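User: Modeling request: complex.
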Amino acid sequence: MADQAPSVAIRELPREECERLIASHRVGRLGVVVDGQPHILPVNYATPGRGEVVFRTAAGTVLNEASLRQVAFEVDDIDAETHEGWSVLVVGYGRDIGDAIDADSVALRELPLVTWAPGERQQWYKIVPAAVTGRRNSRA
Amino acid sequence: MADQAPSVAIRELPREECERLIASHRVGRLGVVVDGQPHILPVNYATPGRGEVVFRTAAGTVLNEASLRQVAFEVDDIDAETHEGWSVLVVGYGRDIGDAIDADSVALRELPLVTWAPGERQQWYKIVPAAVTGRRNSRA
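Assistant: Request completed. Predicted assembly structure:
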């Protein structure tokens, strides 16, 4: 624990900067809702363009047609001591692209994302963004 | 992007280890649901004990009596290259302790968490856990 609590001010970020920040990182957190309960799981992701986010995960149990309808995806880089840094939130819908045979889905499955160990259930998904927002915290 | 996708195996963690891992960090992500839409926001937090999580935030607009009824709180430490690391998920309910005058809430508000700049709306909350789960990814 810090002896003194730091003080920070918040600034909203334009969408272009949000997309640039997301593309600069590789681990984000996916948020889905199951029976009214929010869940958050970390995912390794890629940004193929158009604001989309592609990831694969072994944590398939909370991801299904219902829970993919409204998803959140968050990436941040925040200093634990000062709380300075940034965060970006994507809201949109998710799509299971694991078996899709359209050329786009096939190409996305070539992206170099984490492969889960044999026996782990795994699947490919993409997020189509409806809104992308971000904020930066800096010392007040 | 890595040239080759790494491969990792997953192991579930016991609750004691999950609580120890949460206590070792200071920035986590809060998940709430607003009108069916999940939101994720990073928060600076403290762990006063009993599995509880205390945080204050300026992002008050998505936090209200309805959205606090079911919350998720996630902490992780994952290597961007190898995806090795751990994540812990707390699900439970949130409570606004900003104005509460019980001794416990007053004491919690003494915890050294980030103070937002003057003019930023800010509030104190605590999460009472219903379940705490975690997993560790390691090289397969």
